[in-house]
Design brief:
- There is one protein chain.
- This protein is an all-alpha fold.
- The protein has 10 helices and no strands.
- Helix 1 crosses helix 5 and helix 8 runs antiparallel to helix 9.
């Protein structure tokens, strides 16, 4: 991920900068409890980054701040320190560090961590997001698109389909609020989202479709849990969508210019 000024850390720093409106508003609403939750999550991630730096000479990354923010905001409440540490360790090590660090991972480590919490501690209560916090995700997404670290096509397609579903009464407001926050924190990750225009459109459409499916068929699931599950499956499908887009491009080029 090095091309001129666009190094790995440049992308991580700009991603964090685009998420600042959401982070500041969340801390303003949650106060010291939200800040301490973010700090503890960051501490656990930093320890594992240090371990891999010493063992494998793998440099740490500022992306840990983004990962910690997503985990702290979306993870279930009332989890003990041991449970939090266990989930964060699994997500960061298995979702990022074993692949060589941020920039080489397949799925966001925050998404892996949150999915682990959902499967490992199903009785834990998930956070409830109000409309003001969900609205703060909009400037975060807009900043990410303008800076160039969040895929515009993915965000536009997912947001448009989500707004259409909400207007038709197919999804409730709590699901829509959690989906918007998860969209900018998890799905629009500059590393794990689709790289092609068609792939980004398909990933955004799949994310919205999965939200609609889970909201209607998954009884008893909390809105953040629905959003995390949709983010996980749509992220896993991102390489497939890129492969489809590249295959279509190669097919059109061969029809226009011949096989040679």
């Amino acid at each position: 991920m090095t091309r001129g000024l666009w190094t790995r850390e440049t992308v991580a720093t700009l991603t964090l900068a685009s998420l600042l409106p959401l982070a500041v508003f969340w801390i303003w609403l949650g106060g010291g409890q939200a800040l301490s939750r973010w700090a503890f999550t960051l501490l656990v991630i930093a320890i594992w980054h240090l371990v891999f730096m010493l063992v494998r000479a793998q440099p740490p990354s500022l992306s840990a701040l983004v990962t910690a923010l997503a985990i702290a905001m979306l993870s279930p409440e009332e989890l003990g320190l041991f449970q939090l540490t266990l989930g964060i360790t699994f997500g960061v090590v298995m979702g990022e560090l074993v692949f060589g660090g941020w920039g080489r991972n397949v799925v966001s480590p925050a998404t892996v961590t949150l999915a682990f919490f959902g499967f490992g501690f199903p009785a834990a209560p998930w956070p409830v997001f109000d409309a003001p916090l969900a609205w703060a995700a909009i400037p975060a997404g807009l900043l990410g698109m303008m800076i160039g670290v969040m895929p515009a096509a993915l965000l536009i397609v997912a947001a448009s389909l989500g707004a259409l579903a909400a207007g038709l009464g197919l999804v409730s407001n709590p699901v829509l609020y959690a989906a918007g926050i998860a969209l900018v924190l998890l799905v629009a990750d500059p590393v794990t989202s689709s790289s092609t225009l068609l792939g980004r459109c398909l990933q955004g459409a799949l994310y919205a479709a999965l939200l609609l499916l889970f909201a209607s068929a998954w009884s008893g699931a909390a809105p953040p849990q629905i959003a995390v599950a949709a983010a996980l499956l749509s992220s896993l499908a991102a390489p497939l969508f890129d492969d489809i887009a590249l295959s279509l491009w190669v097919h059109r080029r061969r029809r226009r210019h011949g096989r040679t």
